[in-house]
Amino acid sequence: MNIIQENEERKGFFKAVEDNKEAGLMTYTWAGPSKFIIDHTEVNPDFKGKGVGLQLVMKAVAYARAHQLKIMPLCPFAKSVFDKTPDIADVLF
Fold first, then answer.
1. 2-91, what's its fold?
2. What is the pTM of this model?
């Protein structure tokens, strides 16, 4: 599975693609220069149960760590990942 990030001045997204099909999408909004808000995560029904949402959140965590950023997970799915995964709390805002 390939995860693509597109980052714009105010918003961005991480998109999971497999076999030229969109498997999932997680969107975020910038909240200043040092943090972003994960506001939505969705997974294509054809890819349910394959950990796509988790992969998207973990890609955002890796991006945040690489750029010294913080994440505010307003999306219920992303928040549940942060709640269940204490070793990613370093990027939590």
1. Aminopeptidase (3.40.630)
2. 0.96
